[in-house]
Amino acid sequence: MKSLVLAEKPSVARDIARVLGCHKNLPGAIEGSQYIVTWALGHLVTLADPEEYDKKFKEWNMSYLPMVPKKWELVVIKQTSKQYHNVKTQLFRKDVSEIIIATDAGREGELVARWILDKSGCHKPIKRLWISSVTDKAIREGFTHLKDGRQYNALYHAAKSRAEADWLVGINATRALTCKYNAQLSCGRVQTPTLAIIARREEEIRSFKPEEYYGLTLTAGSVKWTWQHTKNGHMRSFQKAFITDLESSLKGQSLTITDVQKSAKKTYSPGLYDLTELQRDANKRFGFSAKETLNIMQRLYENHKVLTYPRTDSRYIGTDIVPTIKERLKACNTGPYKKYIPELLKAPIKTSKSFVDDKKVSDHHAIIPTEEFVQLDHMSNEERKIYDLVVRRFISVLYPAFEYEQTTMKATAAGQNFLAKGKIILSPGWKTVYDGGFDTDSDEDISDDGTYMKTAEQPLPSLKKSEKFPILNSTVTTGKTKPPARFTEATLLTAMENPVKYMESGDAKARKTLGETGGLGTVATRADIIEKLFHSFLIEKKGNEILITSKGKQLLELVPEYLKKPELTAKWEMQLSDIAKGTHTESVFIQEIQGYTQELIDEIRSADGTFRHDNLTNTKCPRCGKRMLAVNGKNARLLVCQDRDCGYRETIARLSNARCPNCHKKMELIKKGDEETFVCGCGYKEKLSAFKARREKEGAGVSKKDVQKYLKKQKEEPINTAFADALSGIKL
């Protein structure tokens, strides 16, 4: 008898098949002497659409709401139905005695496999492969420690409950809003609170009134001193007269040092990466969207096998990983990392609670390199960038602390306090790994009133308490308070992960719940939520900043209040977590969601709001003839039919990777008829045909393959010339 292994994706299935010695290709599967390996393509099965329960639900009619299935139905996804039938064929083979679930080790991965088994009606015994990387070593070890599949029943029920609850609330509320206001309006328990956070930030920016503030610096004893408020310690004052009077009173005065403090300080490396932290850094440094970073990580995990499982919310590794650290370091001891790794390999590895803690490891440990040998030249430029972030972070936690001596000097002049700070680096420690370029900027240097609190570091001479120095010069500094910055994808991810400060409720228990459940959405779903908001034209991008659209603002006015609050998703995630632990039941949870859905529909039905398209154009839809809407997609400008049933959309301009020859910014490619033209914000225009001709002339059309061929040819051709041959015969 044989075991059937069900993987989530073909690439992972091929790796498992190779390790298990399966080489015979079947339709949608690979067979060996003991195992047959088959695969899903993500979800092959999903919850049925409303019309599958009753044909009348094909019509979007408010009187039919809420739609609550008495028995949940699963359907095969049409696009991948061929593979589903391939999997089903293998499931019911007479020589298959058990199923080994090898989908991604997490809530959603469990759902992928269990729905396939449920839909097909397969009730054979199941085992579970639970691994965090897909290297040959991890696969072999995983198969020697297979778990009983029943251990993960509660995890499956949590995943199933999440899917059914999102169906009930999302589909019913979306249909209700769309029917009520005759516009395509979508909402959900994660996307709507996220949209509300963006709207709130926009409101803060619009209502912000900048205030001018003043400061004072002076030079005495070869040191630059900054005025500090006697009572509150601020470096700025909103009273101009006070600062100008102070400057006048300093003329001809001396400054007396009142205190000199030197203290040895240490800072340790930032923790290892979880997915959200990695997405944040990739957006800040490279402008990658959260979705892009996740896709790149998947390739590094599945195809290159050089990084561990990406969808993790833990920034720690367990004690079981510690013995493998040296092997992982050896695997990535190549290219730029040869400067840092050999030193670590010489001595025993030193670990600490700052990154090794079994209690803080959830389903998966932090993202770290695998033991697989790395070939950097096989990676794309984007893959190299993400890999580099992870490897440097992994190396840095193994390095000692960054040590420095902090000197703080205080002084008085004209009855006011002045401050100067300096730093002497004693040991670069982990910062060596970043070549001294680690970004430590944070919002913590800014006070509540928007003024900067940081005192510039400077080289300080050796001065003593009670010494006096004449004041050589003084300068009044001015600035204006700044509004909070608009969200980028990096800062929006932070807000979704820690939405407590965006909660209107003062309920301490709700705030605690939200902190414990990891915020809005999960590490695996946040990228998709942001993409969905862009795709629904509820938000748009201007440069790197995210702005709410008119449609988004109006939607928030029409959506029931509680659906906009982060507290809702916090409550759900806590209950789902309890279901996964076996301390809460699926039936009670779903019953509660059904009641909430009914309340939502009643509230939408009785509301008296209105929705107005303020982006209508005079362009008629080529399909239905109705006027089209002008919308901004994430990287394109589009015309979209206002009729939801029609669904026609047309791209009129998209942001390209082509750079303007004048200002070097990315240009838009605009289509008018059959002609396409590049247009830049600086005013530069160039037809696509002319652009291609120019680039070809500049040599941009040469591919990497052509370059490799040319270099190879250079190596093969003799480098001696006739003149060199003649000289070679001369004996000196």
Report the CATH C-level class of the largest domain: Mainly Alpha
Our count of domains comes out at 5
Distance between the termini: 82 Å
* Helix/strand/pairing category: alpha+beta
Q: Spans with pLDDT under 50 lasting ≥5 residues?
A: 440-453, 714-721
CATH T-level topology of the largest domain: Topoisomerase I, domain 2
Strand order of the largest sheet: 2-3-4-1-7-8-9
Average pLDDT works out at 88
The fraction of residues in strands falls at 15-25%
Could you outline the blueprint of secondary structure elements for this entry?
Blueprint: E1 2-7, H1 10-19, E2 24-26, E3 29-31, E4 35-39, E5 45-47, H2 50-53, E6 74-76, H3 81-91, E7 96-102, H4 107-120, E8 126-128, H5 136-144, E9 147-148, H6 153-181, H7 191-207, E10 212-220, E11 223-228, H8 240-249, E12 254-267, H9 275-286, H10 290-302, H11 325-331, H12 341-346, H13 381-398, E13 402-413, E14 416-427, E15 468-470, E16 473-480, H14 489-497, H15 508-516, H16 526-535, E17 539-542, E18 545-548, H17 550-558, H18 566-581, H19 586-606, E19 616-620, E20 627-632, E21 636-641, E22 649-659, E23 666-672, E24 675-679, E25 685-687, H20 688-698, H21 704-716, H22 722-728
Parallel strand pairs: 1-4, 1-7, 7-8
Antiparallel strand pairs: 2-3, 3-4, 5-6, 8-9, 10-11, 10-16, 11-14, 12-13, 12-15, 13-14, 17-18, 19-20, 20-21, 21-22, 22-23, 23-24, 24-25
